[in-house]
Write a structure and sequence with these properties.
Helix content is about 15%, strand content about 35%. It has 8 helices and 25 strands. Strands 13, 14, 15, 16, 17, 18, 19, 20 and 21 form a 9-stranded mixed sheet that branches.
Length: about 500
């Protein structure tokens, strides 16, 4: 008998054994030792193939959202897949299939059991999907990186039950979205949130988180930089540099109105009710200060101001009051800082919310406190009187008060006239006082009017010349006597002429 016929005879005679083995494999147990064997036809040990339970694992790569296979193949060409037996620690690589199935990986003859699935080589810009895409059939079972899978089917040379799983990949959200940086304003010691630095945060996928990868230094004023990490729901992330403007803490300015020399508050409140206060910063922006309600209705306040230098402006000062100039508010205690109209107010508290308080100091004007009394002045025609002569109570006015003519009186002719006196007080305020001036005519005989014709000086000069022209004979007494006689004669002639004209 040929060897082939011998083997065929053995297989036929060993049919019970083969059937028993097949049954054992079908039941998923170990190979069953036949209970009945033909002794003369018992196979040699080398002629029996003792099979164990085996599995075939196929993993198909699918690109999420893409029903075609081009991207699946492209991604799969860069992947490496493996499974590790959790019981034995043995790792088996899944081999990529070629041709039509070049986006599939497969491993055969795996022992049934529990395995850990691992993926490496995921290309940049691609992410392993964390869940099955909604556009794929619900009957497809997904395998995830690092996930434990169980192989429970049976594999033999003639009959196997492969396990088919799907690995889903997708474009990374960090590739799909572009977070936009935006500047952040904060204060010294402030802790801005990282999300404040992303201008389009609301446009990013729901569940996107923004955290500081490098926090900005807010310990001092100025511009600094922080780095924001944007993490998407798919686990991918990217970083964005953000400019942070560190400013001094918001300031609060309180201006309290005080009346110099007034210990009560009634006067201050009354004056404050007429005032309007505002401050203007370096940018030119003007902020009004709001008047506070009772019991602080003599105060004005503005909150949330940036630290810096401002100019205080005051309007509406009621009649009879004035704002003190710098250096005049010495009635306040040394610890109080006075503010002045069009004066600088500096808000520079760096350590805490600044509560800057200054005092706007007003006082009654001296022109409202004093009343200069007019005093009539008498003068002559053409007379010049001092303005102080027109104020009767000058000694009672403050030291340093000056009196000048605002409008001088006209003294060119006799009669009554007026002049206006300006009384200027040391505080710069003044009163105008109208003063009566009486201009008197000169007394009789006091006014010398020269005769008609030649002026008196000319007549004297002519007489002198005549006297000099007389002969220089005789003694001096005779000459003098002649002169006197001539003078008498001339006087007589003049009188005669006057009488004749009177008679005519």
């Amino acid at each position: 008998m040929s060897p082939n016929n011998t083997n065929a005879s053995r297989l036929r005679k060993c049919a019970p054994v083969t059937a028993a083995l097949s049954l054992g494999l079908a039941l998923g147990g170990a190979a069953v030792v036949p209970s009945t064997v033909y002794a003369d036809d018992a196979p040699a040990a080398s002629d029996v193939v003792w099979s164990t339970q085996r599995q075939m694992l196929t993993v198909s790569v699918r690109y999420a959202g893409d029903k075609g296979s081009d991207l699946s193949r492209e991604v799969a060409s860069k992947l490496s897949l493996s499974v590790t037996n959790t019981a034995t620690g043995e790792t088996t690589s899944l081999e990529p299939m070629s041709g039509t199935y070049s986006f599939q990986f497969q491993a055969k003859k795996l022992t049934a059991g529990t395995y850990t699935f691992k993926v490496t080589g995921v290309p940049e810009g691609v992410v392993l999907a964390s869940s099955r895409p909604s556009d794929l059939s619900s009957g497809l079972v997904q395998v995830k990186n690092g996930e434990t899978i169980t192989l429970n089917g049976t594999w033999t040379d003639l009959n196997y039950a492969p396990t088919v799983l799907y690995l889903y990949v997708a474009t990374a959200q960090s590739e799909q979205y572009d977070p936009q940086a935006q500047d952040i304003d904060t204060v010294i010691g402030g802790t801005p949130t990282a999300a404040e630095g992303i201008g389009n945060m609301s446009s990013l996928p729901k569940g996107t988180a923004a955290t500081w990868e490098q926090e900005p230094d807010t310990s001092k004023p100025g511009d600094t930089t922080g780095t924001v990490k944007v993490t998407y729901p798919d686990g991918t992330s990217e970083t964005v540099d953000v400019t942070v403007h560190v400013k001094l803490r918001p300031q609060m300015l309180t201006v309290s109105v005080r009346l110099l020399g007034d210990d009560g508050s009634t006067g201050s409140r009354e004056v404050a009710s007429h005032l309007a206060l505002s401050i203007t910063g370096a940018t030119g922006e003007t902020t009004p200060l709001g008047q506070m309600a009772a019991p602080f209705d003599s105060q004005f306040q503005a909150k949330g101001l940036e630290a810096g230098d401002y100019t205080l402006s005051v309007s509406g000062v009621p009649e009879g009051y004035r704002l003190l100039n710098e250096g005049e508010a010495n009635g306040l205690s040394a610890g109080l800082v006075a503010a002045y109209n069009d004066g600088a107010v500096s808000l520079n508290d760096e350590s805490q919310y600044g509560a800057n308080t200054v005092y706007l100091v007003l006082a009654r004007t001296q022109s409202s406190q004093y009343t200069p009394e007019p005093k009539p002045i008498e003068t002559e025609v053409g007379g010049k009187s001092g303005a102080e002569e027109g104020i009767g109570n000058l000694p009672d006015l403050p030291e340093g008060t000056t009196v000048t003519w605002e409008q001088e009186p006209d003294t060119s002719k006799p009669g009554d006239t007026t002049g206006t006196v300006r009384v200027t007080y040391p505080d710069g305020t003044y009163d105008l006082v109208e003063v009566s001036v009486t201009v008197k005519a000169p007394k009789a005989g006091e006014e010398k009017t020269p005769a008609k014709g030649a002026p008196a000086k000319d007549t004297a000069k002519k007489a002198t010349k005549k006297a000099r022209a007389l002969p220089q004979t005789g003694d001096a007494s005779l000459i003098a006597t002649a002169g006197i006689a001539g003078t008498g004669l001339m006087a007589g002639l003049v009188g005669l002429i006057k009488r004749r004209r009177s008679q005519e």
